[in-house]
Amino acid sequence: MKDLVRNLAWPVACGLLAALLIIQKYPHWLGLPEKSNVAIQVAPQAAAPSVGPASYSDAVQRAAPAVASIFTSKDLGTETNPPPRAPTLRDYSDTMPAPARRQSSLGSAVILSPDGYLLTNNHVIADADEILVALQDGREALARLIGTDPETDLAVLKIDLPNLPAVTISSSDELRQRTGDVVMAIGNPFGLGQTVTMGIISATGRNQLGLNTYEDFIQTDAAINQGNSGGALIDAHGNLIGINTAIFSQSGGSQGIGFAIPARLAYEVMQEIIAAGRVIRGWLGVEVQPVTPELAASYKLNQSEGIVITGLYRDGPAWQAGLQPGDLILRIDDQPASSGRDAMNQVARADPGEKVTMEILRDGKKHTFVAQVGVRPSFKP
Question: Within this chain, do residues 201 and 251 fall inside the same structural domain, yes or no?
Answer without folding.
Answer: yes
